[in-house]
Design goal:
684 residues; 40 helices; mainly alpha
């Protein structure tokens, strides 16, 4: 195909060393005077080097690199990495190769390789890129993968299938995947329909920059229209949607989806009055589905009506499966489940949405469980429904035994309370010694000890690549012994066949947690379940929004709680383990009492604030698992399910007996009873 050859030739003509070190830059660096070493540099050269790296202080960083290498400091590879990374846009391949040779097999070698692949991809130095890519162990960078496919295209390889898959999976705008998309579009390996499909996804997920980048492939007029419909969809529909040629229907449907995110009622009226008919069956059905999703996210009962409209409109096209995202189908299923009590037609709507999901999504435990429940609800009475009930039982049996929210629920639906896995053989002295001797784990512990937890965690995780279950258990035990509980838990969770439940669910400060919880009539297993999810028992953990410590309390919340329980509070107290635990448990108890003792609602309140679960409980009363699945925030929905699963496991560990998740989920969740005490309006 002549256009493919033309595209390849254009790519090969790109400058191979854009950003290479110039003679003037070399002279500048050669004449730079070394800065005097500070007291901090001498006492803590690693933290000083990290500070210099953050400030882009090349001279100071070069001095510190020489200092730690002369001292044979065990964390010298990190300083070497920061120094080279700080000027990566200026270096040549030879200097990068020398770095690889200094630190072979280490995390920083592979980390620099990741950075270098992005750099040479940006330079369009495909020879250097292709030489280094096969050595990239982590191989987990989407942009590198996209650059790699461009390199394959230039090497005359067929990238039609793999390239389209990688480009469609892009979630954030970046140069590498944009280059891949432009390359494939120019070579006619991506069709306009596929660009429009990605544009629909970006619009649905409110990825504004990705949508604009994607629209650019179709020309300036389309890019301009997308900008307009994102900025003001109502105005676009009123003034521009009738004058945009053959893409009128596609862009109008995007504008309606954009409008639905902010105003479901107006969007429904526009679809009813004009646009559902004007868009045609396929695009009209997609627009109704987007409206149904937005109504479901707002927990509006109309979501079911909009969902039916979507399916009915699609039926006019006589199409078996919709081209809707798994995200949309998931919310159509949730909306139906929310109203499913005693309503077979709602179960059928939920089942229809789940059946239309991709194979990967259908096999997720969430939808395996609810598909089984839908089969049970829709099975015919008597012998006529036996085969359907047997299918549902088989699906539940496949989940039971798995240590997660829906695994525990499935076991109880089958009449069992799932026991904890038997503890395997503890790591031997030989296995533990081998873990302690690993340089990567040693460096990771050193970085964490130096207060550079993020770097230490990355080094630790890299060192785990390729480990067997026995090696993972030994590494986890090393972290447990050092009381680095997040690495203890996360490492132990990687095992496949051998499970050490006490590593995965450790009980630091057991006496204190149990005593403080029981003093205020709070379930200690619930406290442990929440702490495990909040901080992984990292005392100095601090969230991006300012929550601190073991129980991740916001300063304002801590101050309010302290006043409520009669404690003289100072902000510095949040870093004190005992004070953090006391304030956190007191606040959790207050939240629990304000929400009728419901552990699912209290967990949601702890994560998202109490006003949200108060709103989310409005509407029909429903079983707590359906309520939890309908939480509109992805983070909070996942958080609630994990906290309750954690708490159930901890209850088993503390009591020594199997514990029920359903008992912990409690009574159906619905509007507050008129006779119930009024909630505290000041509860933060």
């Amino acid at each position: 195909m002549p256009w493919i050859s033309t595209v390849r030739a254009a790519l090969r003509r790109a400058p191979a060393m854009a950003g290479a070190l110039t003679g003037a830059a070399l002279l500048c660096c050669a004449l730079a005077l070394p800065s005097p070493a500070s007291a901090q540099d001498r006492d803590d050269p690693i933290r000083a080097a990290r500070d210099a790296f953050a400030k882009k202080d090349k001279v100071r960083l070069a001095n510190l690199r020489a200092q730690v290498q002369d001292a044979r400091h065990p964390l010298a590879p990190w300083v070497d990495y920061w120094e080279l990374t700080n000027r990566l846009g200026e270096v040549r391949s030879e200097e990068v190769e020398a770095f690889y040779q200094r630190w072979p097999g280490s995390y920083v070698e592979d980390r620099l390789r990741n950075d270098w692949l992005l750099e040479v991809g940006h330079r369009r130095d495909w020879e250097a890129f292709s030489r280094d890519l096969p050595r990239f162990r982590m191989n987990d960078d989407r942009q590198v993968s996209c650059y790699g496919l461009v390199a394959d295209f230039l090497a005359n390889k067929d990238i039609r299938e793999t390239g389209l898959k990688a480009w469609m999976a892009q979630r954030e705008p970046d140069e590498g995947c944009q280059l891949l998309g432009q390359t494939m579009f120019d070579a006619k390996l991506i069709a306009t329909d596929e660009v429009l499909r990605k544009l629909r996804y970006a619009t649905e997920m409110n990825r504004v920059q990705l949508a604009r980048q994607t629209a650019g492939l179709l020309g300036d007029s389309v890019a301009k229209a997308v900008n307009e419909l994102f900025d003001n969809p109502a105005r676009y529909l009123a003034t521009r949607a009738s004058n945009i040629g053959h893409l009128r229907i596609e862009l109008a449907s995007l504008a309606l989806a954009r409008m639905a995110a902010n105003d479901t009622e107006t969007t429904a009226r526009l679809l009813d009055d004009r646009w559902a008919g004007a868009l045609g069956a396929e695009h009209g059905a997609w627009a109704w589905a987007q409206l149904a999703k937005q109504a479901a996210l707002a927990l509006k009962p109309e979501a079911v009506t909009y969902s039916r409209n979507a399916w009915d409109t699609l039926a006019k096209k006589d199409r078996a499966a919709p081209d809707w995202s798994d995200e949309t189908l998931g919310w159509l299923a949730r909306a139906a489940l929310r109203q499913a009590a005693g309503q077979p037609d709602r179960w059928r709507l939920a089942q229809r949405a789940m059946d239309a999901m991709s194979a990967t999504e259908r096999n997720d435990p969430t939808w395996q469980y609810w598909r089984a429940r839908a089969l049970q609800a829709l099975a015919k009475p008597g012998e006529a429904g036996d085969a359907t009930r047997a299918e549902a039982q088989q699906m539940l049996a496949g989940l039971a035994g798995q240590l997660h929210f829906y695994g525990l629920l499935a076991a109880e639906d089958l009449g069992q309370i799932q026991p904890l896995p038997a503890r395997g053989t503890a790591p031997s002295d030989t296995e533990r010694s081998a873990a302690r001797a690993l340089p990567g784990l040693q460096r990771a512990l050193g970085m964490i000890g130096a207060g550079l937890r993020n770097e230490g965690v990355r080094e630790w995780n890299f060192t785990l690549i390729g480990m067997s279950d026995r090696e993972l258990l030994a590494a986890a035990q090393l972290a447990c012994e050092r009381e680095i509980w997040d690495r203890c838990i996360n490492t132990s969770e990687r095992t496949k066949a051998e499970i050490d439940i006490e590593q995965r669910y450790p009980q630091p400060m057991r006496a204190d947690v149990i005593a403080k919880a029981r003093d205020i009539d709070l379930d200690p297993a619930y406290v442990y379940g929440l702490i495990r999810q909040e901080s992984r028992f990292v005392m100095d953990a601090r969230s991006s929004v300012g929550a601190s410590g073991l129980m991740q309390i916001m300063p304002a919340t801590a101050k309010w709680t302290a006043k409520k329980i009669g404690v003289d509070f100072k902000p510095a107290m949040l870093t004190d383990r005992d004070t953090n635990l006391r304030l956190g448990t007191a606040y959790l108890k207050l939240v629990l009492d304000n929400l009728d003792g419901s552990q699912p609602m209290a967990a949601a309140a702890y994560n998202a604030g109490p006003n949200r679960p108060r709103r989310w409980r409005e509407g029909p009363a429903m079983e707590p698992a359906i309520w939890a699945e309908n939480i509109p925030f992805n983070e909070t929905r996942d958080y609630v399910k994990k906290v309750l699963t954690n708490a159930t496991v901890y209850a088993s560990l503390i009591s020594g007996k199997p514990a029920s998740l359903k008992a912990r989920l409690g009574a159906p969740i619905g509007p507050r009873a008129a006779s119930a005490p009024l909630p505290d309006p000041d509860l933060p």
